[in-house]
Description:
By secondary structure, the protein is α/β, with parallel strands linked by helices. It is built from 7 helices and 6 strands; from the N terminus they run αβαβαβααβαββα.
Amino acid sequence: MKTDFTRRKFMGTAGAAIFAGAATTAAPAQAATKPQAKTVRIVGICCSPRKGKTTAASLKVCLEAAGAVNPQIKTDLIELAGMKIDGSLAAGIPLEQGQQDDFPKLVPKLSDPDVAGIIIGTPVYFNNMTYLCKAFLDRCITFRQNNFALSNKVAGVLAVGGARNGGQEITIQSVQACLYGQEMIIVGGARPSARIGATVWNSGKNDVTDDEFGMTTARSLGRRVAEVALKIVAANN
């Protein structure tokens, strides 16, 4: 998919400032060269406040499965742990003097034209997403206000709960509801057992790799996001 951010007008001063750093220019055409296969990037966003723990591990499994679908696919994992993301800015409330916010750093990474898929991963807190996930999704209003900049990118959701049926599916639906507001293409897992998304169980050992069912859903989700992303990129080139 191709997204020309130089032609977009962002609604609001803050959004304009953010997107100023993400503007891209077209590369000069090269004659008499065989066109290379387009790179298709899939980005995982880990919304756990615990860096490198079970949600990150689950997303790595998901992204590995995505990358195995086709050599065109390149994957990246972004962990929000340790970042300062203030959800109140989405309501137009400015930061107090001296405060920092890291969300603008994420904008060029997600608005990269090569990014065709995004997988959101979150632990389950009281049958829903983490505060960090909600703040991130609220701040994504930047993309919506910028002429729906995430429109037609493929999205999948992974949730890690403290029980086998610990609210993972409710959490996935809650995140998906936010992504529908971005005009993203929401997908679940792939055949033979297609599901709403990846539902992983942290049994208390802080090691999700022994959750065979959960890892199966993570791989299934990664494959499905990759397959649909490839189809969309091919249709637009």
